[in-house]
Design brief:
The protein is an alpha/beta fold. The chain is about 40% helix and about 20% strand. The mean pLDDT is about 90.
Length: about 280
Amino acid sequence: MPLSVLYVFSDLFYFFIYRLLRYRRKVVSENLRFAFPEKPADERSKIEKAFYHHFCDFLFESIKTLHLSKAQFNKRFVFLNPETLNDYHQKKQSVVLVSGHYGNWEWMASAEKYIRHKYLAIYKPLANKQYDRLIKNIRKKHTSVGELVSMNDVYKEILRHIRSNQLIVTWFLGDQSPPKDYPLWINFMNRETPFYSGPEKIARKFGHAVVFMNINKVKRGYYEVEFTPLFDEPKKTSENEITLAHVKMLEDTIRKKPEYWLWSHRRWKHEKPGAD
């Protein structure tokens, strides 16, 4: 079905999960209340509804990925400044690319046309094996130069490519829930939040440039991708400087258009040890 038809189903699905099923309504409402205490309740309610509309669109767009042509991708998912990454390729430097669960990150499957590096997309395997297999098939559909790499195998895979003298872009969703051991706690959206410091550790150890990626939703079914260089010489940074920088970039992005972030994620289910 064309996306125009799928969006009709998306609107119906919104009514089902928001009005009837009330899918994670309490989680979303609480997350928005903590993030935007200065906003009146009716404004937070508008953000909440807009988020659920976007979330439903995202689900149908992700499934549609299996049947989108490259021409459709080129029209709907536009890279504004791909030269940012390709300049690093010309300088023979690998890149750590960081973004968040914002916009439509699943459509990054179309990035192979624009990225000259070997493209490693880091993902967290899902507990549901069938859904995990579906997601991997969606992400593999439009890429021949990229690889899906489990978080558990990141270091091993990066070393493998370095030893073969291959330039790589390693893409992390920086707001992913971190492993339980030794997370870095940062004040994010007005709450102490644990973050995975893996992107920073890799960048500092191997000298990979750090770039933040924003996927901005222009209108329904249309996105623009913009790359912002953060650190060209990561080995010269201080501890936690890189992580603090990309988290700040993500928070600034969310505050501008909050409805496009994944508010249904139970991102604050753990409290910082020792917190009152």
